[in-house]
């Protein structure tokens, strides 16, 4: 949406105050994300800003009271966001909503949040009816994007300098089932176009649809340009609860898939999700979930305390006592915090990392090993580079490393030039490409005035310099 609006001549800015209209991209998967959308709409109204809502919250429930005078763009209409923004600026409430249409065209202009990462949504919707899920109401049944379009999109992204390709969808394993194909068809085609020095990360896949393709999935994960990483949400390790949730697999299915892959793919990194205290979860069911965590020591665990989502079948069921639900969530979280994938035996070992992100500490860069383990490296290793590094220390979620080869320190001036280039890229780069970017979750703020973000930054610097000079002058005058 940023790309479309920038391409249409709007200035996309990140300073909320500077914008005339706020484009809010919303997610309905959990209550806090929905609350955030609600709060942002309220804040926008208080500030007298026009609002365009996109994403699953407004798609699932467009008639909600708090969305009454807000423009809405449906999940399949992001190509029409300009129309909604234009109408909003004219004081109208524009509603562009229907799921009964093909995907937005793939040749849309785009702005990448990280210029080194292409987030490629391979489908929308899913084949399931999980009883706790509200996303289904917004996204509907599975609609896969064609193999040819996805491969062309990936190829183009790599040509534009992207280093990592992240596949996203509600259920990666289900891709293709509505168009007579299966997921290995797509993965085999994609690995063909990943250049040397680049890598692909697979997205979240529910167990049922990969069960038929474990051999091919293992083969793909062993490819040198594919991260050995898979996210398979189990949600509960009780068959009874899985049945109530309508998850359509058993614990044995999950273990069979995980064991098969762990056996064939060395150092495979498996992430999973649990929902604690689903309405029908007994203490014994929860213990089964805990036993599974103890068995696999998943390096990434997304632990969600159950919260009813309005309009879902599970919302009608009586809930587990709030104290008990909290205690179960806390117990699983505490156990998770108590173990680590990384131990001291890793110190001194070498890894090859691909560096594509800034570390949260603002000092290091983040590289990922072939198993998608986070390894923090010095800045001089360089963004977008593949480096051989040696582990120097380990933590719960990441390891620290130094490059094996000699890399000169970056001089301060070079670093600030790199920084400003990166800022300019991440804020302003508009790439007329052929794809949608599901991962661009940040809210986009649009300003239709003639001033650009670059000009704003320059003005801010000038104002700051003037303020410092003025302060000094005042101090001198006061002394005199
Ligand atoms: S697979 Fe289940 S949880 Fe995931 S989007 Fe579909 S219905 Fe929702």
UniProtKB/TrEMBL annotation:
Q: Where does the Radical SAM core domain lie?
A: 112-343
Q: How does it sit in the membrane?
A: Single-pass membrane protein
Catalytic activity reported: N(6)-L-threonylcarbamoyladenosine(37) in tRNA + (sulfur carrier)-SH + AH2 + 2 S-adenosyl-L-methionine = 2-methylsulfanyl-N(6)-L-threonylcarbamoyladenosine(37) in tRNA + (sulfur carrier)-H + 5'-deoxyadenosine + L-methionine + A + S-adenosyl-L-homocysteine + 2 H(+)
Provide the cofactor note recorded for this chain's UniProt entry: Binds 1 or 2 [4Fe-4S] cluster. One cluster is coordinated with 3 cysteines and an exchangeable S-adenosyl-L-methionine.
Residues passing through the membrane, by range: 456-474
Does this UniProt record's set of keywords contain S-adenosyl-L-methionine?
yes
The record's annotation in Pfam families points to: Radical_SAM, UPF0004
User: What is its biological role?
Assistant: Catalyzes the methylthiolation of N6-threonylcarbamoyladenosine (t(6)A), leading to the formation of 2-methylthio-N6-threonylcarbamoyladenosine (ms(2)t(6)A) at position 37 in tRNAs that read codons beginning with adenine.
Q: What is this protein called?
A: tRNA-t(6)A37 methylthiotransferase
């Amino acid at each position: 949406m940023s790309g479309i609006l920038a391409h249409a001549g709007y200035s996309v800015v990140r300073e909320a105050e500077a914008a005339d209209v706020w484009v809010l991209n919303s997610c309905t998967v959990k209550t806090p994300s929905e609350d955030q959308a609600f709060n942002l709409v309220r804040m926008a109204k208080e500030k007298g800003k026009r609002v365009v809502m996109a994403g699953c919250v407004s798609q699932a429930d467009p008639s909600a009271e708090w969305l009454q005078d807000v423009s809405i763009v449906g999940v399949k209409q992001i190509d029409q966001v300009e129309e909604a923004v234009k109408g909003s600026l004219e004081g109208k409430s524009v509603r562009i909503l229907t799921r009964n249409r093909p995907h937005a065209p793939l040749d849309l202009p785009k702005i990448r949040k990280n210029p080194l990462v292409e987030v490629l949504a391979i489908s929308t919707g899913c084949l399931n009816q999980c009883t706790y899920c509200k996303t289904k109401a917004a996204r509907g049944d599975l609609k896969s994007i064609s193999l040819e379009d996805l491969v062309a999109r990936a190829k183009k992204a790599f040509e534009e300098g992207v280093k990592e390709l992240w596949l996203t969808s509600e259920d990666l394993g289900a891709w293709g089932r509505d168009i007579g194909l299966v997921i290995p068809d797509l993965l085999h085609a994609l690995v063909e176009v990943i250049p040397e020095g680049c890598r692909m990360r697979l997205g979240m896949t529910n167990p049922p649809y990969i069960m038929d393709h474990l051999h091919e999935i293992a083969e793909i994960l062993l490819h040198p340009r594919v991260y050995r990483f898979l996210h398979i949400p189990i949600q509960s390790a009780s068959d009874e609860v899985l049945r109530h949730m309508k998850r359509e697999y058993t614990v044995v299915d999950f273990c069979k898939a995980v064991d098969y892959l762990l056996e064939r793919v060395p150092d495979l990194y498996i992430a999973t999700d649990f929902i604690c205290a689903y309405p029908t979860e007994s203490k014994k069911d929860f213990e089964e979930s805990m036993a599974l965590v103890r068995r696999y020591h998943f390096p990434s665990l997304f632990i969600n305390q159950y919260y009813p989502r309005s309009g879902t079948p599970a919302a009608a069921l009586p809930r587990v006592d709030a104290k008990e639900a909290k205690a179960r969530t806390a117990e699983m979280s505490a156990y998770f915090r108590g173990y680590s994938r990384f131990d001291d035996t890793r110190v001194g070992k070498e890894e090859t990392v691909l560096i594509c992100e800034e570390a949260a500490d603002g000092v290091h860069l983040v590289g990922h090993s072939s198993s998608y383990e986070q390894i923090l490296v010095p800045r001089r290793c360089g963004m977008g580079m593949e480096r051989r590094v040696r582990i120097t220390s380990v933590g719960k979620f990441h390891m620290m490393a130094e490059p094996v080869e000699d890399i000169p320190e970056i001089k301060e001036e070079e670093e600030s030039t790199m920084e400003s280039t990166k800022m300019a890229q991440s804020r302003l780069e508009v790439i007329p490409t052929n794809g949608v970017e599901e991962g661009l979750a940040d809210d986009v703020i649009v300003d239709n005035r003639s001033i650009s973000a670059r000009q704003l930054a320059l003005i801010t610097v000038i104002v700051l310099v003037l303020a410092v000079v003025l302060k000094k002058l005042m101090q001198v005058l006061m002394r005199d």
